[in-house]
């Protein structure tokens, strides 16, 4: 009688057994089929890891194989052969069931996609007066957010509403997953608007068609709500100083950043006309992107922290003037976040539509390139300006912390100062999370840093002058819904 420690490879040992028989022949074929069919876009390596992760469901059967307390009991050649045959049978049955389940799941997903395409085309053909645009359906970009749990988002439809009572477009993103529909405002909404949207989506029947969902959204959720900016006693939009800040910010982009974004757009793949499986399959990059990235002045100043010239000095100057104009308007102002005491929330300046457009046109492609997975689908934001001053209304410094975001964009707007460098440590959940790695000084106005929200960072004490920064916290409901949120 002998004993040995048993592991996953001991359970899979029959796969390499020289014994004859249809079971031993089918098992390797079944494993190979699983690796290719499970998710062909992810590649064999990722599916191999997924396959081993699913083997945990076989552990309750170990006593049948003579395994107790992590030990394999060997009591004779004949019995060992029987146990090997039983192991092969169990593994073969599991692989067969997995293939059937995956095939059924993918067939249903394909049917859902085609059904949504038909419904979207029919809805656009009706041309309802409240519908400004409808984009999709499409699958989530990339595949980093696909989890093993149920309820993960799989298909996306973006809808822009606009009507007589809402002259500014209102954007909502619909997420379809296994017959269930979720929705998110693509612009910050009031708590009342968030609650109404959540209640409405919970009342929908599973599998409701777009022809029912979209008109009902307009009639029951959006139309009764006050337009953007009207929830405050007095809207700032009517008294702005620089109207050009209330349009697209793309004209203010640094030429090098604009060139990179154009190349990224050329290198990205589109949606397959039949099923949309090709979205993000090759990623948003292009051959030689890293060389161009460095040539254009982009720099990875620390692991996962990127510095570059983002906006023109003119944008920074206009923005600071607009900020001062707003501060003297006498409207309500909130703290930008729980740590900074001094600053301005840009939603109170009615800049949310511009921030959302900037996020989708600039921050989204950069995040897909630099932070694949977590940065694939940005669908929400919190934007604000922070102010550091030696004297007067301003913070002196900021303790190390993480952001409530998936990706953070931090832009230096200008003014003159000394000190106040950004300090970067490690990532949350890493062993060196509070180990200082780098102190970064902004080269000048218009320069920005882009990093993960869970990147621990802070601000050193300002020695003289004033520094104002525009910060955009980009969030991803799809990433968090997949159970991949970092805390």
UniProtKB/TrEMBL annotation:
One Pfam family named in its UniProt record: OGFOD2-like
Keywords: Dioxygenase, Iron, Membrane, Metal-binding, Oxidoreductase, Transmembrane, Transmembrane helix, Vitamin C
InterPro entries: Oxoglu/Fe-dep_dioxygenase_dom, Pro_4_hyd_alph
Cofactor(s) it depends on: L-ascorbate
Keyword Membrane: yes
SMART domains for the chain: P4Hc (SM00702)
UniProt domain Fe2OG dioxygenase: residue ranges: 379-476
Domain of life: Eukaryota
Residue spans crossing the bilayer: 21-39, 51-72, 84-104
The protein's name: Fe2OG dioxygenase domain-containing protein
